[in-house]
Design brief:
Layout (H helix, E strand, L loop, with lengths): L4 H23 L3 E7 L2 H16 L3 E7 L4 H10 L3 E5 L3 H10 L4 E5 L12 E3 L14 H12 L7 H10 L13 H11 L3 E7 L9 H7 L12 H10 L5 E2 L2 E2 L7 H17 L3 H4 L3 E7 L11 H13 L3 H8 L5 H26 L4 E3 L4 E4 L9 H9 L9 E7 L4 E7 L2 H5 L4 H11 L3 E4 L3 E7 L3 H16 L7
Parallel strand pairs: 1-2, 1-3, 3-4, 4-5, 11-12
Antiparallel strand pairs: 6-9, 7-8, 10-11, 12-13, 13-15, 14-15
The structure holds manganese (II) ion.
């Protein structure tokens, strides 16, 4: 989609309005409470606003939360902060909050789909201006525009917003490129000399892992027989005459010569073709976002790895470390984050092993797949499991609904994922989650391609069946109701 200039300027007007209210609050020395979402984009958004406020010598506090619920709203009402900023979450609950109290200033900086434009508080959301918040700008992108409006020196936070957008998988343009308003943020980062963008082999760990490790670890693209199989990768690299080491040092993907990259790429393409996986070939090459001021061999150097690191800090209950890194901390904070990332990877692998251990753990219904993690899979990690599994299902036309219990809360966290193919056919998981959750006394919503819900435990079966039915109805061109 080409963004009309008028849409953009309307969006920027609301950005400006938000920055004015924040600036006033800072001038009055008010304590600002920030609530942000527990994922890479949310942590980046919180860090961006935090850094902007720190530069203004403001008083503020950042909380990272998986979602906003009645409990949190009650807590806010008890604490009565003079001003609350929600980033990357909270529009619905902000409405609720604004109805319950009138003396708390509320600002929402978000990019999730919303039903209607809130009137009672300030809401900066691209959807209000006809801009696609699923792929054209993320929560941290919205936060970035506000930060930039607060002070132009905050353009140095543009790479963090790029990281947030990548974390939200917004690289949906040709060859995994960021587009829409994200493109403007990318340009800011490039112009500030903080980012380079190039087309290259896109394997994860291109900056931090020895080539064979990066190839074996890749799940996007997923290469059956190569992904997860280091010995096969070693054979392949040897047959292509690509040395693993230079002198005594491991080589990462970024160290390969153009010629080596070409050989590797065409060998992998041939291999995918032989397996009938034509689609995955286009995923071999993509836009790579490099944060040029970050040290080589750190997970901060590649935008996608950076986003995984942030996400890991959130999922492993250490989001403060992620926020600190977004605000510029390195040294000890980075050391700690790297450890957290390692633990996170181990945990994910443990869960994936569990899911694939027994065939029945991925259930196939008529229109969806279902994985029920019970208490085994941490509810903060079910989203990651859902994403990884969904790109490797036998039938890409069936969305995946993955669930796990939220301990001691009597609710089930649901994480739904589908593919571009289905989005192009009109499937919108955000709508489906919302409609189905409401019918089951839960809460749901999100993006067309990735969405979630929280459902009372006793209603989960009913919910799953309803989602299955709603997907059927949607694909048959029927109304799904509201
Ligand atoms: Mn987001």
């Amino acid at each position: 989609m080409v963004i009309g200039t008028s849409y953009f300027s309307d969006f920027l007007n609301s950005v400006l309005e938000a920055s004015k209210v924040i600036y006033e609050a800072v001038s009055e020395d008010l304590l600002i409470h920030i609530y942000s979402h527990l994922d890479a984009d949310g942590i980046a958004a919180g860090g961006i606003i935090g850094k902007a406020l720190q530069r203004l010598d403001a008083r503020f506090r950042i909380r990272i939360t998986q979602w906003v619920d009645d409990k949190l709203i009650d807590e806010i009402i008890r604490e009565k902060p003079p001003i609350v900023i929600f980033t990357d979450l909270g529009t619905d609950y902000a409405s609720l909050l604004s109805k319950k109290v009138s003396d708390i200033k509320i600002i929402v900086l978000d990019h999730h789909q919303i039903g209607c434009t809130p009137q009672s508080f300030l809401c900066v959301n691209p959807h209000i201006y006809g801009i696609d918040g699923a792929k054209d700008i993320s929560g941290s992108g919205v936060a970035y525009f506000v930060a930039k409006a607060l002070d132009i020196s905050n353009v140095d936070l543009a790479p963090i917003a790029v990281v947030g957008a990548l974390g939200d998988l917004q690289d949906k343009y040709d060859q995994r490129m960021l587009g829409g308003l994200n493109q403007k943020i990318v340009e800011d980062a490039i112009n500030a000399g903080l980012l380079t963008v190039e087309k290259d082999l896109i394997f994860f760990g291109r900056e931090t892992r020895p080539i064979h490790k990066a190839l074996a670890a890749t799940t996007s693209p997923f290469i059956p027989g190569i992904s997860g199989a280091e010995d096969k990768v070693l054979d392949l690299l040897a047959s292509l005459g690509i040395p693993l080491k230079h002198d005594d040092k491991w080589r990462a993907l970024r160290d390969l010569t153009e010629d080596e990259k070409k050989r590797l790429c065409s060998a992998l393409a041939d291999y995918l073709l032989s397996k009938g996986l034509h689609c995955e070939i286009s995923n071999l090459i993509g836009h790579v976002y490099t944060l040029t001021r970050e040290e080589p061999w750190t997970p901060l150097r590649d935008g996608r790895e950076f986003s995984v690191l942030l996400n890991a800090t959130g999922r492993m209950n250490k989001s403060g470390v992620g926020v600190a890194i977004c605000m510029g901390d390195r040294g000890k904070a980075l050391e700690e984050a790297s450890k957290i990332l390692e633990d996170y990877r181990k945990t994910i692998n443990k869960y994936l092993d569990w899911v694939t251990e027994k065939p029945g753990r991925i259930q196939e219904l008529e229109y969806i797949y279902v994985v029920y993690g019970g208490t085994y899979i941490d509810d903060k990690i079910i989203g990651a499991i859902s994403s990884i599994l969904s790109s490797n299902l036998p039938n890409p036309e069936k969305p995946l609904i993955a669930c796990s219990d939220v301990k001691n809360e009597g609710i089930v966290k649901v994480s739904a994922r589908t593919t571009d193919i289905m989005v192009n056919r009109g499937l919108n998981l955000g709508d489906i989650m919302q409609v189905a959750a409401e019918k089951c006394k839960g809460k749901g919503g999100g993006h067309n391609i990735a969405a979630g819900a929280q459902i009372p435990k006793e209603k989960i079966e009913e919910f799953i069946n309803l989602v299955n039915e709603l997907v059927r109805r949607k694909l048959a061109g029927e109304e799904i109701g509201g």
